[in-house]
Design goal:
single chain; mainly alpha; Hypothetical Protein Yqey, Chain: A, domain1; 7 helices
Length: 153
Amino acid sequence: MTQMTPATPLLARLQQDLNAARKAGDKAAVIVLGTTIADARNHEIQQRRDLTDDDVLDVIRKAIKRRREAIELYLSAKRDDLVAKERSELATLEGYLPAQVDAEEIRAAVRTAIAGGANNIGAVMGRVVPQFKGRAEGSTINAIAREELSRQG
């Protein structure tokens, strides 16, 4: 079997950072980057095509979501040692996400959607979320949309 070449600049960056972490002896980074690359490769196999940067970002976002859920569970179980580990991994992964949009840009898009006739949360989310895919959390957009809709009524 031939060695797969990174199909995307983001996957190549993950691989370079993994190699650097190995050389530096950073076991935590090696584990989180290695599992993320493996998840991306598995996703590539499932898709039966080369990955795009958006595909890799989706894999990273899912890994971030898992870390956030684990942090919540560990906080409720008072496992501070595991919370610290997950937060460290979360910070590592968040470094690969594109810059997040500021709340005012989201608020402006929400107001535009409402002005355009979107008068419930589903309609607003349907119009606004695609504009910020990968650059804003759905929960953030949802909170701003609910706030703006409550001002309308």
